[in-house]
Amino acid sequence: MLSTDEELLTKKGLEWTEEVEENQELHTRAILDGYTVKKEPMYEIPLSCLKTTDGEVQYLSYKDKKWFASRKHTWLKQRFTETELKEKVPEFYRELAKEV
Questions:
Q1: Which residues span the domain enclosing 3?
Q2: Pfam family of this protein, just one (predicted)?
């Protein structure tokens, strides 16, 4: 039978990082107590003044290093982290961002 460490390494294919090794008790408590990592908020940028011919609001979208407006599509980059808003999204559009 595999030990807990071996099971984790086998199932996940990952090695313990130095940080995990140094904080084994903390990480073990997190696993045992059901700790979950808080997800970073995501933002969309609706462009309410731009609508499709069937009345759908368009969103600031990014693909292939190009910015454009499009209706919601899962295959387009239309959700942005706060860091992306600050570093990548053109300044004019940042004020329009809505947390989702």
A1: 1-37
A2: DUF1642
